[in-house]
Design a protein that fits this description.
This protein is mainly β and 76 residues long. It folds into two domains: 1-37, no CATH class; 39-68, no CATH class. 8% of the residues lie in helices and 13% in strands. It has one helix and two strands. Strands 1-2 form a two-stranded antiparallel sheet. A hairpin with a 5-residue loop joins strand 1 and strand 2.
Length: 76
């Protein structure tokens, strides 16, 4: 299950009572169930704002939250 954790600077991860993942509303209005097994990359990397112009260090999950790195997410 995705867990909510406060890193001390207000960055929170997703959480859900659904087993296996969580429901997310996308910017265009679609709702998708995202598996708890989605690629999250390097969770110890610097916050995304400090890597402007680069692909998200947080894998596919991070790429879903920004267009700064110009990643092509595809199916997940």
């Amino acid at each position: 299950m995705l867990q909510t954790q406060d890193s001390g600077d207000g960055i929170l991860s997703a959480s859900s009572k659904h087993s296996g993942g969580a429901q997310f509303c996308m910017a265009h209005g679609a709702v998708r169930f995202i598996s708890e097994n989605i690629n999250t990359g390097d969770l110890n990397a610097a916050p995304a704002g400090t890597t402007s112009g680069l692909p998200s260090p947080y894998g596919t999950f991070g790429a879903l939250g920004t267009n700064v790195g110009s990643e092509k997410v595809g199916e997940f």
